[in-house]
Amino acid sequence: xxxxxxxxxxRQFSALDQQKNQLIEELLQRVTDLExxxxxxxxxxxxxxxxxRDIQLHEMELMQQISQIKNIMDREPFVVVLLDGEGxxxxxxxxxxGEEGGRSAAKALETGMRxxxxxxxxxxxxxxxxxxxxxxxxxxxxxxxxSGTISEAAAIHDFIRGFNETMSLSEIVDIGSGxxxxxxxxxxxxxxxxxxxHCHQIFLGCPSNxxxxxxxxxxxxxxxxxxxxxLVEGVPFEKELETVQNSYRIARFPDVFRSAKLxxxxxxxxxxxxxxxxxxxxxxxxxxxxxxxxxxxSTNTSFSGVGGPLSTVTxxxxxxxxxxxxxxxxLPGSTVAKTVERNKYGQRxxxxxxxxxxxxxxxxxxxLKLCNYYFLLGECPNEENCYHDHDRKxxxxxxxxxxxIARMTPCRFGLECDDPECIYGHRCPQSEPGKKTCxxxxxxxxxxxxxxxxxxxxxxxxV
Length: 463
What we know:
Layout: H1 3-73, E1 78-84, H2 92-95, H3 98-120, E2 128-135, H4 137-146, H5 156-166, E3 170-174, H6 181-194, E4 199-205, H7 210-219, E5 229-233, H8 242-245, E6 249-252, E7 339-342, H9 359-367, H10 372-377, H11 396-407, E8 459-462
């Protein structure tokens, strides 16, 4: 074998050794990398083990805290009953029994509520009952008296006293005569209790009107909470609540609340003591021109409130012709149809345009302290002891202004008054149709419902 052959073989073996060494180095590097990865995984595993142990301990602590909080939440469960007295009215037998009736009504309401809860919401165990009934006591008492439910309006205070004394967490709240006072109070209390964890159910009793309809419709947005709301139906719900009543649980207590509204059946008590009002007939000569006649739907009128035709008699010679006394006719058999004009809502409408009366003349006649009964109805029920003027001679125009002055005093029977001879006001003279207030605000003598009255007459009720 020649030298070049040996050299070639040496080179071949050297290349193999080099490849072997390279393979060994690669294997060693691989082992090193695997050991490093193993150590990292080992560390991660140890870290996760510690973390899982910590999480388990923390979870146990949280579960213990949740259990404690749940026990605290369940300690004092209560149910709220919020009732608007306009739509929720106790039955007559309770109202007529005074204090004893109030006590019986409170007990019957609590019994009915607990029975309803046990049957429909069994998850609420032995809750306290927080009951608040918001009511314009004066107006409600007068309505009860007018409907014949109680003998006099003041008797309603005995019923309320008995109700409030019976249950420590139940009361009837007098809201006064402010506009939407019951709605405002119920809305605020509703929002407070809706998110209270101790409150397990809210019972809402309300009349059918647009305010409550809109409020309940907005409450539907709280989808997770609507199950905590139940509606109490006394007087059947009307169209204002049609769209929302099916979304709530409805509770009825026919043994406690009336299912029909109170309806007035009598008018002012002094009316029965007076003879029928004689007619006021025109004189052959007049110095005051009557305004043009009105259509049934007209809202502009310049004379009303007297109930019969009015005129003047010729003055005696030498007297001022501007002062012509109004006299009553003695014609036998004379009759005048007694009617009450109402709008499309059935509300009484006073056909009198207060803005057409001069302010100076109005103030002047107010200062005269004239007897409204005598000059407008022809008789004074207390003429012997009356401190108002009966002797002054009035022109027809002054009589017209006096009828407007009388209309500035609210009629106690409001828009439901069906006395055709009533001389008092049934709508606020300062309020315009559609506007629910006047410049006097809450100090106005008229009830909020007497504002914004539609004055278009579409119905005449004969009495």
